[in-house]
Design brief:
Protein name: Phage shock protein A, PspA
InterPro entries: PspA_VIPP1 (IPR007157)
Pfam family, one: PspA_IM30
Shape: rod-shaped
Strand content: under 5%
Number of strands: 0
Distance between the termini: 9 Å
Order of helices and strands: HHHH
Family: Belongs to the PspA/Vipp/IM30 family.
Mean pLDDT: 79
Number of domains: 1
């Protein structure tokens, strides 16, 4: 066996080993989609809880305002009856209730701000999820193309990809594999030319 043939066999074995070492990118994408779906459901529950919190605070504001009106009415009645001490107590209770209503209003504003941020984040998460789901079909077709190309070059080699952590890494993985396959084909074309062999 010639030196170049041996080098070619070692190179091909290394590439096949690398391909076998990697996991299937579609499995990784499916895991990412499942994790994104779980995150979306958790975020929806959070948004639901925030909306309930806002509603509870708004009910407290309404009840506090009613209490203030009631105490103000009691103070007026006490003044008309000449009961200044009772009127003073009713107005003091009204002032405390107004302070509580003010605190509830501030909490509502903060909760609404948090709710708006959560809804904005949810919209972005859903957009990313839909993008990943729509690209899955494209990746499936690309993987099938790569598998068929590999079967043409080495029918017995199994094709598996490296576990990826993001959609961008999946894109890079496919591009790398396509370049590797093109380089392999170029080497084979050069090898098959009579002047390319070194016997």
């Amino acid at each position: 066996m010639s030196l170049t043939q041996r080098m070619w066999d070692i190179t091909r074995a290394h590439w096949n080993e690398e391909l076998e070492r990697r996991g299937d990118p579609l499995e990784q994408l499916d895991r990412l989609l499942a994790a994104a779906a779980r995150n979306l459901r958790e975020w929806e529950r959070l948004i639901y809880r925030l909306k309930n919190h806002v509603m509870t605070l708004q009910h407290r504001i309404e009840a506090g305002e009613e209490w203030c009106k009631k105490r103000e009415g009691q103070a007026c009645l006490a003044l008309e009856a000449g009961e200044e001490e009772l009127a003073r107590l009713a107005l003091a209770e009204k002032a405390r209730a107004e302070d509580e209503v003010g605190a509830y209003r501030r909490m509502v504003l903060q909760a609404l701000k948090t709710l708006e941020q959560a809804e904005t984040q949810w919209i972005e998460m859903e957009r990313v999820y839909r993008e990943m789901a729509s690209k899955r079909e494209l990746y499936l077709l690309r993987m099938e193309s790569l598998r068929l190309q590999q079967q043409l070059t080495s029918p017995s080699a199994a094709f598996r990809g490296d576990p990826l952590t993001s959609l961008q890494r999946l894109e890079e993985e496919f591009a790398d594999r396509e370049r590797e396959w093109e380089a392999l084909q170029q080497l084979r074309r050069e090898w098959d030319r009579p002047e390319g062999r070194m016997y």
